[in-house]
Amino acid sequence: MLLRILKLRIFVALAVVLLYFSLTTGNFLSTANLLIMAQHITVIAILSIGMTLVILTGGIDLSVGSVVGFSGMVAGFLISRGIPLGDQVLLLNVFEVVVVTCLVGLAIGLVNGALVTWLNVAPFIATLGMLYVVRGAALLFNDGATFSELGGHAEFGNTGFALLGGGTLFNVGYPVWLLVAMTVLAAAIAARTPIGRYIYAIGGNERAALFSGLKVKKVKLFVYAFSGFCAALVGLVVTSQLQTAHPMTGNTYELMAIAAVVLGGTALSGGRGTVIGSVIGACVISILNDGMVMSGVSSFWQMVIMGLVIILAVVIDQLQQRLQKKVMVAL
Fold this sequence. Notes:
By secondary structure, the protein is mainly alpha-helical. The chain has 14 helices and six strands. The chain has helices spanning 2-7, 9-24, 31-56, 64-80, 94-117, 123-141, 162-166, 174-192, 194-204, 206-211, 216-242, 253-263, 275-294, 299-330; strands at 83-85, 88-90, 147-148, 168-169, 172-173, 244-245. Strands 1-2 form a two-stranded antiparallel sheet. Strands 3-6 form a two-stranded antiparallel ribbon. It has a two-stranded antiparallel ribbon with strand order 4-5. One of its GO terms (molecular function) is transmembrane transporter activity. Keywords: Cell inner membrane, Cell membrane, Membrane, Transmembrane, Transmembrane helix, Transport. The chain crosses the membrane at residues 36-56, 63-83, 89-111, 118-141, 176-200, 221-239, 251-268, 275-294, 300-319.
């Protein structure tokens, strides 16, 4: 019975958080507030999707927050200034800006993957170093200044960037639809494709996977590239919503994404977890943050509470693993 409750802990946590803040905070479940929370959930959830695949292989990606900020700066630069080509400037339309920015995020992810696989750098160290490199690059991009008023110019055909973060379809924001699409895609990759099975196998026992003939390096390159791609998408969404590209955007987002993944039941050691669980974990994290803000909880206490939640999630995960081992031994 206890083991079953532990497996469903993320749903219990979501219900408890929703119930508590709906009873203690006025207008918490109002339409306006739900729409705001949906935007916040989208940001953390998309990051957690990429992070899930990385952690399932036994790795970690600490650079995603910096990639969010750098991607936003890339998009802001392309929209406001274009690409200098001698005496001329090439201005890209919004679709081309999105494609280029996503490719930049993917490329950073590939560099992370190359450091981990080809140079055998520990994932924690490789991505921590990349966190500083990319954040510094974002600051250098415009000497620490922002790119503001990213509405584009109609005469150059690069307007419409605001729709990415603020547009709606059937009264649901585009970012939410993007989250749904990314969730379906990642869940399908993890559960329905050979590479998904390889991801779980590598996380479960990398040496055994290698001896079984699996392309471990290629799989790791894929998951880090996918994580970088997800971070670039988040950078585009946030920059579109703010209509301003700031080099410090995404600061500490990596910690929020890791917290969502752990809360969602993914083991930090790899080999166990689901994309859906991480998305629900992102819902819990975002709702908890918004609820504390609406309740007037001090930002200092918010940090303390969030840290305790992460520690508790890891402790519960360890307890679940021990109970599962006891059940297996008993059988």
